Amino acid sequence: MDLQNQHSSSTDLSLVQPVEQTQVKNFMANVFAYMFMALAISALFAYLFATNLSLLQYLISSTGRGLSALGYTVMLAPIGFVLLMSFGYSRLSAPVLILLFVVYSAITGISFSFILLKYTANSVLGCFLSAAAMFGIMAFMGYTTKQDLTKFGRIMIMGLIGIIVASLINLFMGSPTLSYLISFVGVMVFTGLTAYDVQKLKNIGAGLQYANVPATDVKKASILGALNLYLDFINLFLFLLRLFGGRRS
Protein backbone atom coordinates (compact mmCIF):
# COMPACT_ATOMS: atom_id res chain seq x y z
CA MET A 1 0.00 0.00 0.00
CA ASP A 2 2.85 2.39 0.87
CA LEU A 3 4.55 1.60 -2.41
CA GLN A 4 1.36 2.38 -4.27
CA ASN A 5 1.00 5.73 -2.46
CA GLN A 6 4.62 6.62 -3.20
CA HIS A 7 4.17 5.73 -6.85
CA SER A 8 0.96 7.76 -7.01
CA SER A 9 2.57 10.82 -5.43
CA SER A 10 5.60 10.61 -7.70
CA THR A 11 3.29 10.35 -10.70
CA ASP A 12 1.39 13.43 -9.54
CA LEU A 13 4.64 15.40 -9.20
CA SER A 14 5.75 14.34 -12.66
CA LEU A 15 2.50 15.70 -14.03
CA VAL A 16 2.56 18.94 -12.03
CA GLN A 17 6.13 19.97 -12.84
CA PRO A 18 5.72 20.00 -16.65
CA VAL A 19 2.49 21.97 -16.27
CA GLU A 20 4.23 24.57 -14.08
CA GLN A 21 7.13 24.76 -16.52
CA THR A 22 4.71 25.32 -19.40
CA GLN A 23 2.95 28.10 -17.50
CA VAL A 24 6.25 29.84 -16.75
CA LYS A 25 7.29 29.52 -20.40
CA ASN A 26 3.99 31.05 -21.50
CA PHE A 27 4.48 33.93 -19.08
CA MET A 28 8.01 34.58 -20.32
CA ALA A 29 6.87 34.27 -23.94
CA ASN A 30 4.31 37.03 -23.30
CA VAL A 31 6.97 39.19 -21.62
CA PHE A 32 9.28 38.92 -24.63
CA ALA A 33 6.40 39.41 -27.07
CA TYR A 34 5.48 42.74 -25.45
CA MET A 35 9.14 43.74 -25.33
CA PHE A 36 9.70 42.99 -29.02
CA MET A 37 6.51 44.87 -29.86
CA ALA A 38 7.82 47.91 -28.00
CA LEU A 39 11.21 47.71 -29.72
CA ALA A 40 9.55 47.46 -33.14
CA ILE A 41 7.38 50.53 -32.42
CA SER A 42 10.40 52.51 -31.21
CA ALA A 43 12.45 51.54 -34.27
CA LEU A 44 9.60 52.51 -36.61
CA PHE A 45 9.08 55.97 -35.10
CA ALA A 46 12.82 56.62 -34.88
CA TYR A 47 13.16 55.84 -38.58
CA LEU A 48 10.11 57.90 -39.58
CA PHE A 49 11.28 61.04 -37.80
CA ALA A 50 14.94 60.66 -38.76
CA THR A 51 14.14 60.35 -42.47
CA ASN A 52 11.27 62.84 -42.71
CA LEU A 53 12.27 66.49 -42.24
CA SER A 54 8.66 67.63 -42.13
CA LEU A 55 8.17 65.52 -38.99
CA LEU A 56 11.54 66.32 -37.49
CA GLN A 57 10.98 70.07 -37.72
CA TYR A 58 8.25 69.81 -35.07
CA LEU A 59 10.93 68.83 -32.56
CA ILE A 60 13.28 71.71 -33.38
CA SER A 61 12.72 75.34 -32.42
CA SER A 62 11.83 77.89 -35.07
CA THR A 63 15.31 79.43 -34.79
CA GLY A 64 16.87 76.10 -35.69
CA ARG A 65 18.83 76.08 -32.43
CA GLY A 66 17.74 73.74 -29.70
CA LEU A 67 14.49 71.89 -29.21
CA SER A 68 10.94 73.12 -29.48
CA ALA A 69 8.42 72.72 -26.66
CA LEU A 70 7.30 69.48 -28.29
CA GLY A 71 10.92 68.37 -28.57
CA TYR A 72 11.50 68.86 -24.84
CA THR A 73 8.26 67.03 -24.12
CA VAL A 74 9.36 64.09 -26.23
CA MET A 75 12.72 63.95 -24.45
CA LEU A 76 11.28 64.12 -20.91
CA ALA A 77 7.93 62.31 -21.29
CA PRO A 78 9.38 58.74 -21.26
CA ILE A 79 10.46 59.21 -17.63
CA GLY A 80 6.90 60.13 -16.69
CA PHE A 81 5.49 57.12 -18.52
CA VAL A 82 7.86 54.74 -16.72
CA LEU A 83 6.94 56.21 -13.33
CA LEU A 84 3.23 56.13 -14.14
CA MET A 85 3.33 52.48 -15.23
CA SER A 86 5.48 51.43 -12.28
CA PHE A 87 3.69 53.24 -9.46
CA GLY A 88 0.21 53.02 -10.98
CA TYR A 89 0.54 49.31 -11.71
CA SER A 90 -2.01 48.16 -9.12
CA ARG A 91 -4.64 50.72 -10.14
CA LEU A 92 -4.32 50.54 -13.91
CA SER A 93 -6.02 47.85 -15.98
CA ALA A 94 -4.13 45.63 -18.40
CA PRO A 95 -5.49 47.40 -21.54
CA VAL A 96 -4.47 50.80 -20.12
CA LEU A 97 -0.98 49.48 -19.32
CA ILE A 98 -0.63 48.18 -22.86
CA LEU A 99 -1.77 51.54 -24.27
CA LEU A 100 0.72 53.41 -22.07
CA PHE A 101 3.48 51.01 -23.11
CA VAL A 102 2.70 51.55 -26.80
CA VAL A 103 2.66 55.35 -26.45
CA TYR A 104 5.82 55.26 -24.37
CA SER A 105 7.56 53.13 -27.01
CA ALA A 106 6.52 55.54 -29.77
CA ILE A 107 7.71 58.62 -27.88
CA THR A 108 10.99 56.93 -27.00
CA GLY A 109 11.44 56.06 -30.67
CA ILE A 110 10.86 59.69 -31.65
CA SER A 111 13.55 60.80 -29.20
CA PHE A 112 15.89 58.21 -30.74
CA SER A 113 15.57 59.94 -34.12
CA PHE A 114 18.23 62.42 -32.98
CA ILE A 115 20.57 59.47 -32.36
CA LEU A 116 20.10 58.23 -35.91
CA LEU A 117 21.05 61.68 -37.15
CA LYS A 118 24.08 61.91 -34.87
CA TYR A 119 25.68 58.54 -35.66
CA THR A 120 26.34 56.77 -38.93
CA ALA A 121 23.84 54.15 -40.04
CA ASN A 122 26.48 51.38 -40.02
CA SER A 123 27.53 52.10 -36.45
CA VAL A 124 23.91 52.25 -35.27
CA LEU A 125 23.20 48.90 -36.91
CA GLY A 126 26.41 47.37 -35.58
CA CYS A 127 25.75 48.49 -32.01
CA PHE A 128 22.12 47.35 -32.24
CA LEU A 129 23.14 43.88 -33.38
CA SER A 130 25.82 43.73 -30.70
CA ALA A 131 23.29 44.74 -28.04
CA ALA A 132 20.85 42.13 -29.36
CA ALA A 133 23.50 39.40 -29.20
CA MET A 134 24.64 40.35 -25.69
CA PHE A 135 21.04 40.68 -24.49
CA GLY A 136 20.11 37.29 -25.95
CA ILE A 137 23.07 35.50 -24.37
CA MET A 138 22.50 37.02 -20.93
CA ALA A 139 18.74 36.42 -21.10
CA PHE A 140 19.38 32.75 -21.88
CA MET A 141 21.86 32.51 -19.01
CA GLY A 142 19.45 34.18 -16.62
CA TYR A 143 16.65 31.83 -17.60
CA THR A 144 18.63 28.59 -17.46
CA THR A 145 21.09 29.12 -14.61
CA LYS A 146 20.49 27.36 -11.29
CA GLN A 147 22.53 29.99 -9.46
CA ASP A 148 20.56 32.55 -7.45
CA LEU A 149 21.36 35.96 -8.94
CA THR A 150 19.76 38.03 -6.17
CA LYS A 151 23.05 39.21 -4.63
CA PHE A 152 24.49 39.79 -8.10
CA GLY A 153 21.42 41.84 -9.01
CA ARG A 154 21.84 44.03 -5.93
CA ILE A 155 25.40 44.80 -7.01
CA MET A 156 24.17 45.72 -10.48
CA ILE A 157 21.50 48.01 -9.02
CA MET A 158 24.16 49.72 -6.90
CA GLY A 159 26.18 50.16 -10.08
CA LEU A 160 23.11 51.67 -11.79
CA ILE A 161 22.73 54.19 -8.96
CA GLY A 162 26.41 55.04 -9.35
CA ILE A 163 25.92 55.62 -13.07
CA ILE A 164 23.01 57.99 -12.43
CA VAL A 165 24.98 59.99 -9.86
CA ALA A 166 28.09 60.13 -12.05
CA SER A 167 26.02 61.19 -15.08
CA LEU A 168 24.45 64.06 -13.12
CA ILE A 169 27.89 65.20 -11.97
CA ASN A 170 29.24 65.00 -15.51
CA LEU A 171 26.46 67.29 -16.74
CA PHE A 172 28.36 70.09 -15.01
CA MET A 173 31.89 68.77 -15.54
CA GLY A 174 31.56 67.76 -19.20
CA SER A 175 34.48 65.34 -18.88
CA PRO A 176 35.00 63.08 -21.94
CA THR A 177 37.01 60.65 -19.80
CA LEU A 178 34.26 60.36 -17.20
CA SER A 179 31.69 59.99 -19.98
CA TYR A 180 33.68 57.11 -21.46
CA LEU A 181 34.00 55.46 -18.04
CA ILE A 182 30.25 55.84 -17.40
CA SER A 183 29.48 54.23 -20.76
CA PHE A 184 31.85 51.33 -20.10
CA VAL A 185 30.36 50.66 -16.67
CA GLY A 186 26.87 51.09 -18.14
CA VAL A 187 27.46 48.28 -20.64
CA MET A 188 28.56 45.95 -17.83
CA VAL A 189 25.70 46.94 -15.53
CA PHE A 190 22.89 46.50 -18.06
CA THR A 191 24.42 43.29 -19.37
CA GLY A 192 24.30 41.92 -15.83
CA LEU A 193 20.85 43.34 -15.14
CA THR A 194 19.50 41.48 -18.17
CA ALA A 195 20.36 38.10 -16.64
CA TYR A 196 19.11 39.18 -13.22
CA ASP A 197 15.81 40.57 -14.52
CA VAL A 198 15.10 37.49 -16.64
CA GLN A 199 15.64 35.20 -13.67
CA LYS A 200 13.51 37.46 -11.48
CA LEU A 201 10.70 37.43 -14.05
CA LYS A 202 10.94 33.65 -14.34
CA ASN A 203 10.49 33.37 -10.57
CA ILE A 204 7.64 35.87 -10.64
CA GLY A 205 5.92 33.85 -13.37
CA ALA A 206 6.23 30.68 -11.31
CA GLY A 207 4.89 32.43 -8.21
CA LEU A 208 1.91 33.94 -10.03
CA GLN A 209 0.86 30.59 -11.43
CA TYR A 210 1.38 28.78 -8.11
CA ALA A 211 -0.75 31.35 -6.27
CA ASN A 212 -3.56 31.09 -8.86
CA VAL A 213 -3.40 34.81 -9.64
CA PRO A 214 -6.15 36.03 -12.03
CA ALA A 215 -5.23 36.09 -15.70
CA THR A 216 -5.58 39.87 -15.89
CA ASP A 217 -2.99 40.33 -13.14
CA VAL A 218 -0.66 37.87 -14.86
CA LYS A 219 -1.00 39.93 -18.04
CA LYS A 220 -0.22 43.13 -16.15
CA ALA A 221 2.86 41.51 -14.64
CA SER A 222 4.06 40.45 -18.09
CA ILE A 223 3.66 44.02 -19.40
CA LEU A 224 5.66 45.48 -16.53
CA GLY A 225 8.26 42.74 -17.00
CA ALA A 226 8.51 43.65 -20.67
CA LEU A 227 9.10 47.27 -19.68
CA ASN A 228 12.02 46.24 -17.48
CA LEU A 229 13.65 44.19 -20.23
CA TYR A 230 12.97 46.94 -22.78
CA LEU A 231 14.83 49.40 -20.56
CA ASP A 232 17.71 46.94 -20.14
CA PHE A 233 18.03 46.54 -23.89
CA ILE A 234 17.80 50.18 -24.96
CA ASN A 235 20.24 51.31 -22.26
CA LEU A 236 22.69 48.59 -23.27
CA PHE A 237 22.34 49.74 -26.89
CA LEU A 238 22.81 53.42 -26.01
CA PHE A 239 25.93 52.81 -23.93
CA LEU A 240 27.43 50.66 -26.69
CA LEU A 241 26.66 53.41 -29.17
CA ARG A 242 28.42 56.00 -27.00
CA LEU A 243 31.48 53.77 -26.81
CA PHE A 244 31.73 52.51 -30.38
CA GLY A 245 29.34 54.59 -32.48
CA GLY A 246 30.80 56.49 -35.40
CA ARG A 247 29.64 60.08 -35.52
CA ARG A 248 28.57 61.73 -38.75
CA SER A 249 31.04 64.25 -40.12
How would you summarize what this structure contains?
By secondary structure, this protein is an all-alpha fold. The protein has eight helices and no strands. Residues 1-19 have low confidence and may be disordered.
Task: Give structural attributes.
disordered N terminus, 249 residues, mainly alpha
| Strand residue percentage | under 5%
Largest sheet: none
Structural class: mainly alpha
Helix content: over 70%
Question: What is the number of beta strands?
Answer: 0
Q: What is the string of SSEs from the N terminus onward?
A: HHHHHHHH
Shape: globular
- Cα end-to-end separation: 82 Å
Q: Helical region count?
A: 8
Count of the separate structural domains: 1
Q: Over all CA atoms, what is the radius of gyration?
A: 21 Å
User: Low-confidence segments, ≥5 residues, pLDDT <50?
Assistant: 1-19
Mean pLDDT: 86
Assembly of the depicted chains: single chain
